[in-house]
Structures are given as structure tokens and as C-alpha cells.
Amino acid sequence: MFWKFDLHNSSQIEKLLEKEDVTLQELLDEDDVLQECKAQNQRLLLFLTRDSSMLELLNLITHEPPADREERLRYKYANVACELLTCDVSLINDKVGGDESLMNTLYSFLEQKSALNPLLASFFSKAFGNLITRKTEQVIGFLKNKEDFIGQVLKHLDTSAMMDLVLRLISSVEPVCLRQEVLTWLNEERLIQRLIELIHPHSDGETQSNASQTLCDIIRLSRDQASLLQETSETTDPLLTALELQQNVEALLKNMFEGEKSEVCIVNGTQVLLARLETRRPGVEQVIDPCSQGLEKSYTVNNSILMGIQPHLKHFHHLLLNPPKKCVMLTTMGVLEEPFGNTRLHASRLMAALLYTRAPRIHLELCQLNMINLLLDLFFKFSWNNFLHIQVEHCVSAILNQTTPNGKTHDSPDQIQLETQDTQNSEKTDMFTCCGMIKHLLKDCRLVQRILDAWEENDKTQEAGGMRKGYMGHLTRIANTVVQNAEREQEQTQIAQLIKGKLPEEYKARWEQFVNETLTETNKKNTADLVFSDYQIQQMTANFVDQFGLNDDEFGDHDGRISATFDRITEIKFNLVDEGASSAIFETRTKERIRPFDDAEEEEDIWEDKEINYATQVKARKERGGWWLSQTSGYVHSSHSPGWIASFEDDFSCRDFTSIAMDTGSSVWGSSTAQLSETEEKGWATFTDFQPFCCSDAGPRCSSPKVSPLPAYTIYIYTHTHTHT
What we know:
Layout: H1 12-17, H2 24-28, H3 33-38, H4 42-48, H5 51-62, H6 76-85, H7 90-97, H8 100-107, H9 118-134, H10 136-145, H11 149-155, H12 160-171, H13 176-188, H14 191-198, H15 205-229, H16 238-244, H17 246-257, H18 263-277, E1 300-302, H19 303-309, H20 313-321, E2 329-331, E3 334-336, H21 342-355, H22 360-368, H23 371-381, H24 386-400, E4 419-421, H25 427-444, H26 447-463, H27 472-488, H28 494-502, H29 505-526, H30 533-536, H31 544-547, H32 581-593, E5 627-630, E6 643-647, E7 695-696, E8 699-700, E9 714-718
Parallel strand pairs: 1-4
Antiparallel strand pairs: 2-3, 5-9, 6-9, 7-8
Helix pairs in contact: 5-6, 6-9, 9-10, 9-12, 12-15, 14-15, 14-17, 15-18, 17-18, 17-19, 18-21, 20-21, 21-24, 22-25, 23-24, 24-27, 25-28, 26-27, 27-29
């Protein structure tokens, strides 16, 4: 056994700690220093928690290493120091969090005027974040006493590690009362307003991107936390409230569109608006995010956000018509003279989100701007941009699945349940929401005519040998949305009436034929069963692994028998086809050839030690089939079925080939001149009279001047195999 030997190697850390002049650098050079620290090595912890050692560790993660050090080893000590400081050892956390001088040393990293080293910033953020989690009260009290801590962090927001530090303050503070205190403090420091100010054309791209991402994460974290605490707490999140203020929304849009326009600023600002308009985490298409399935209520969109956006919808309309200039782009489909661009894509996403809000004044403004018609124009113009196509599809779905005045809702799988807080909604504006938008889509935007014309154009293109248009899949789904909502209407038949009453006669017939024939056939093709389709469309839920593949019990021991696994073979069903005469011949020959095992015969022990003697005959097990080899000059005797023999006589003078003959039941080889003895049974053939294949009348065709004669070997091979029945 292994424990018989003393294989335990004493740690090199212990040997170093026995030295009186051991240095921290010597310990950091050891590979197992982190492991020993996590294992609560008391001697090591006592050394690390000395004031001098702690100060040196903090300096390693906050100061640039020597420039003359080898690049791959330059940040080695800083990395190990960060791991030691964040390895969740209470002695280290208590030492740093309870010593204000050490906290000041760590905090001094933020007070640099120059740009931060991104790697050192990540070490600092990780160490400070660990203290926020483990020593919350002490650290929060320390930060509150610092002058303009938020300003110091936002000054270096171009480094993503600072964004992580802000989010740690929001998400890692416990208990709830202390977290609420921290949120109130951050709101008093105008965190939201300061972040909005950074999303400005004058800020660099990294700062704008990190500011936007920080705001989006604050929205999601605060909203999720509010959902978890909505039954136990009536307090509101001050940061979330600040984000909903109309003046803050207008300030963001003002930075995006007034003065110098910047594509980066517009994209990052739109992402913040989208985060506030979304109600559930985006998941797989047509599948609700599992994280939000347990929530009974949908997140609400405050009316102040919509009121802040409404005056600026004209800017988004102008943006879709006149986007930032883009260079010509080479794609797999050829040269793209006018790329659609990320800016217009975000504007399209915002329009879809606004349509799902069911806000009457927003819908009215979109109709007046003819926004939906513009999006449909872009849909067909950029035929290969599926990112745009899915957004236009969402817009159409949002309009057709409107809530009617009597409370009926035309749902669809793509519908996102949104609620708007608008106390000024009236029955008249509700009627516009339900009827006006649908009428605008079908009549003014000519949705049905566009579908038919685009489909016909695609058919002509394909008939001429061209490629199928890239939007055809989404166009099929849009057509299905129109048909399904027209069929689902019960008391209101607005869609059907608009198609019958407002559609030109030519298009009425075409639409009816299209729905009954073309669309139906297309849907059949699209719903054809595919291999493993059940697994491909299966939602990734918590029990997905349990439902996929083989069951665990299939790998068990079952009843313990070796043959248990093979018993399942009996469950396999075979369909044998009777081939008539061939089948009868096969059965006949099988009965003639197959013989049962002779269980009475003594089995040969294959593990028994035997002396190998090449001069004696080797007998094989008769029931296994095979070949016999004996060094004799005569025949091999057997009491079993016929086989075939190759015989090599003493005067055989060629090493290269053997004389082989087969008993095929015919007279190919003629009659044998050899006489069988009385003790020999029928069924054997001897070929001693045959000459070797490699020899001729002129003598052997061998390269050797003298060929040594070989002893006679007789080989026996069974012509049939026994079957275990």
C-alpha cells in the first residue's frame, strides 16, 4: 500500500519560514504558497499579516513593476499577491479591512492622475471588491469619508475594472438595510446623472461604452432585486427611480442628437433606453427566458420614459433616412455599396420595443412620422440583413397583436408582455392603438401588397437561376402572423375587413390563392420533421440533461449476471424475407453442417503449463474449428468432417510457396493415386503426387544456389464452423 512508504514531502514553505531572514519574495516564488495560505498554515498567515508584509503585498498590486524585468515574469508577484489578498482568509481580510493605513495605501491607486494600468486595475478592483463583500460596514464607512469617491472611479471609467467596482457596490452589499443605505448614498452622489454625462460625443469610445454598460447593468440588477423583495419590502430603488425620471431620459437623448453627432454616442445611448424598455431577459427566439419564468408580474415601463422619448422620435426617423456614412463593404454576397450599419439597427430595435409598449401617444407619433413604412422599405432594400428583418418582424407582430378595448389580446409566440403606466389613456386613444395602427399597417403601408409582390419577385428570380432572397424566411413568418391574427379575431374582424374591403380586387384573388396554396405549401415544407428535431428545438431547462440521451440505469449492473447486458438482444426484432429456393438450400446445408457441442469431452486447460515440443503432433480442440499442424511425413488422421489438406514432403525444395488443394466435391483435381489405409476414414485427400507450384521440369526457380529441404508439414483446416445454439 502507498501508506507503507513515507512519500509525503514537507512543504518548502515550512523550510523557508524557519529562516530568520526569509523575504516575502522568496515565499511568492513558491508554487504552493497560495495552497498553503488557503489551508490556513498558521506560520505562513502570521508572516503575511505582518504590517510590513501586508504593505508590500498592497504595493505589488498598486504600483508598476520594474521595467527591466522579463515581460512574462513582470506581473508574476502582483498576480500572486492579488490571489493571496482575495483567497477569503479571515485573518487577511480583518487585517486589511481593519487598518486604515493599509486601506489608504490601497485607495491611493484611484488617486492617480494618469491612466490606470488595466492589469493592475483589475487586481485593485478584485481586492477592493473582496473587502466590500467581506468587510462591508468598515469599507463603506471608509469610502463615505473619502472626498468624491465616485468622481475618482468615474475618472478612470475607460478601464472596465472600474465598472466592475461600481457594480460590486450595488450587488454585493448585505443585508438589505445596508444595501438600501448604500444605494441612497450613491444616488446622493448623483451616480446616474454622472454616468449619463459620460455618454457624450466628447468622451472617448471606451468611456462611453463602459458608462452605457454600467447603466444597463444597474437597471437589470436593481430590477431583479426589486422583484425578489417586492413582497417583503416596500422601499424603492433610488437608482432605478433616477433612471426613470423624464429629465434624465431627455438629458441622455440630448447628448445623443444635439450638437455634434457621434455614432458611438447614439448606439450606447440607445442601449440604455432599450434596457429600460425591456421587460424580460432576452432568450432564445420564441422562448421565454427561464430566469424570468418564476416572476408573476411583468416589469412595467414608466410613462415618464415614454414622454422623454416621444419628442426625439423625429431624430430617429432622420437617422434611418440619413445614417452616418459607411465605407463600401466586401461581403460573401458581393460588394455592399451602402451598409445598413449598427446605428440604424439600434434605431430599429428601439422602434420595435416602443411598439410593444402599447402607448397610444407613441403609436400615434410613429404613424405620423410614417416610421413603419420606412422600416418596411429598409426590410426589402437590405435583403441580406437578417438582424434588420427580425426587428421589422417584431414591429409587425406588435401591431397585429394589439389589445382590444374589450380586453381581448391577439397573442403570438413573439409577443412581449408590457405594461405602461399612462393615466391619461382614454377609450378613444385605446381605439386608435387597436384600430389605427392596424389600419395604418395594412392600408397606408400596404403590407399585404408588399408580401405578394416580394414573393412573386423572388419566384421570378429563382426561376431565372438567381438566389432566393434573404428575407424570405421572415416574410413567411410575417404572412403567417397576418393570417393567424385574422383568423383569431372573434368580435372584431378589422384585419379581415381591411383585407376584403380596402385591398384592390387584383390583390384579393392573389392573396386568397397565396394563403390557400403557396403559403400552405411553404409551411408544410418548413414544418417537416428533421432528424433529432425534438432535441434541436427543446428548451434548455434545468431537467434538460435528465431528458436527453441515455438513462443512468442503462449503465448499471442490473441483476449482476455477466449475460444480463446481452439479454436485451432478444428484444431486437428482425424481419426476415423468405427468398424461396435460396432459403431452403440454406436451411438444408445448415442442418448438414451444424453439429452440437460435445459437452462430455474434457476441456483443455489453456492456462496449464505445457512443454513445447515441435517434434510431436499438436492436437487442436475439435469443437472450436481451426487448423492442425504436425511434423509428419504421413497423413493427419481425424474422425470428423471433411476438410482440406496441404502436404509438404521431405523432398520439397522451395521455401516460397506451398501446395494447396481443396475438396470442393468436384473432379477438378482428378483421382488420387494415394491409397487410404484401413484405419483412415473417408473424406481425406492426399496430394503427395503434386509438384510444388514454384517448381517446374527445369528445377526450382529459386535464387539460392542450394535450397535446403523442408520437413513435411500437414495443415488441416475445417471447412465449416460450429454454431453455439
